[in-house]
Design a protein that fits this description.
Elements (H helix, E strand, L loop, with lengths): L2 E4 L2 E4 L2 H4 L8 H6 L5 E5 L6 E5 H9 L10 H8 L3 E4 L6 E4 L1 H4 L9 H11 L8 H13 L6 E4 L7 E5 L4 E6 L10 H20 L3 E6 L8 H30 L11
Parallel strand pairs: 9-10
Antiparallel strand pairs: 1-2, 3-4, 5-6, 7-8, 8-9
Length: 263
C-alpha cells in the first residue's frame, strides 16, 4: 500500500486522504519545511498553483481545518457544486454564480466591463449630464420649438447619443475630458474610446451623421464657452434644415433645369 506523508509521520494512502489536497512538493521538502513555511498546492478546480503554510496543510489532512483544496472562494463554491452555470447577459460567455448572488441580480455578467457596457446601453434613467449639455438642451428647445430633438436617448443606435435629431439623421456627441485623458485610469479611458468607436460605427451603419465636438477645454463651464458650442451646432442644423426645404421643393416641382435656363 502506498503512503502519504504528514509531518514526519507516514499515513496509509486511502481514497479519503487522496481527495483532501493535491500537493506539488516532495516528502523531503515537506519534512524540512518549518511550520509556517508556504508550500505549493494545485487547485482542484482551476488547476492553478497556490500556496499554503505547512501547518495549514497538516490541519487539513487531519480533518480539523480546511482551505487547502481550493485557491479561492470561487473555486471553493464550484467544488461544493452549490452554484449555477449561466450565460453572461452581454457576451453570452458561461459564468458561474452562486444562488445567493443570483437572487439579488437581474442579469448575470462575467466581468465589470460587460456589466458597464450592458447597463450603459439599456439604462433609461440616471444619466449624468454636464452643465454644458443642459445649457445646449435649453437653448435648442427655444431656437427650434417645433423640431424633435432627443437628448441622451439610446433608441437610435442602441447606445446613448447626447443629441439626436431623427428628421435630419443628425447626432452630436459632446466629449469632455474623460474621452481624452486618463482621469479615472488608463483602463477606463480605453473602455471609453472603444465605446466611442462603437458609436461611430453604429451611426455609419444607420446612416446617421455624427458630429463629435471636443469640449474638454476649458475645464469649467461658462456661458461664453457654451455659446461657442451652441453656435457650431445651430450652424449645422440650419444648413440641414435649408437643404431639406430645397429637397422638398424639388420633390413638389420636379422640373429639369437646363444650362440656358429652360425647363
Amino acid at each position: 500500500m502506498s503512503t502519504r506523508f504528514l509531518g514526519k509521520l507516514a499515513f496509509p494512502e486511502i481514497s479519503f486522504i487522496c481527495t483532501l489536497v493535491i500537493h506539488l512538493y516532495t516528502q523531503k521538502e515537506f519534512n524540512d519545511a518549518k511550520s509556517r513555511q508556504l508550500l505549493p498546492l494545485k487547485c482542484k478546480i482551476c488547476q492553478k498553483t497556490f500556496y499554503r503554510a505547512k501547518n495549514k496543510i497538516q490541519n487539513q489532512l487531519k480533518g480539523i481545518a480546511a482551505g487547502c483544496k481550493y485557491c479561492s472562494k470561487k473555486c471553493f463554491h464550484i467544488g461544493k457544486k452549490n452554484g449555477i452555470i449561466c450565460k453572461c447577459t452581454q457576451c453570452e460567455k458561461q459564468v458561474y454564480k452562486r444562488p445567493k448572488i443570483l437572487s439579488k441580480i437581474k442579469h448575470p455578467f462575467c466581468s465589470i466591463s460587460c456589466a458597464a457596457t450592458y447597463n450603459n446601453t439599456h439604462k433609461t434613467f440616471g444619466f449624468t449630464r454636464s452643465k454644458l449639455e443642459k445649457y445646449i438642451e435649453k437653448k435648442l428647445t427655444l431656437i427650434y420649438p417645433k423640431l424633435e430633438v432627443k437628448y441622451n436617448k439610446t433608441d437610435a443606435i442602441n447606445s446613448q447619443l447626447d443629441i439626436y435629431i431623427p428628421s435630419l439623421k443628425f447626432a452630436v456627441e459632446l466629449n469632455g475630458p474623460i474621452h481624452y485623458e486618463p482621469i479615472f485610469g488608463q483602463e477606463k479611458l480605453n473602455q471609453t474610446k472603444n465605446n466611442d468607436e462603437r458609436k461611430f460605427q453604429a451611426c455609419l451603419e444607420n446612416k446617421i451623421e455624427l458630429c463629435i465636438i471636443d469640449t474638454s477645454k476649458p475645464k469649467n463651464f461658462s456661458e461664453k464657452s457654451g455659446e461657442k458650442v451652441l453656435s457650431m451646432i445651430t450652424e449645422i442644423i440650419d444648413k440641414k434644415l435649408a437643404d431639406n426645404q430645397v429637397t422638398q421643393l424639388i420633390d413638389v416641382f420636379p422640373y429639369k433645369i437646363t444650362p440656358n435656363g429652360g425647363k
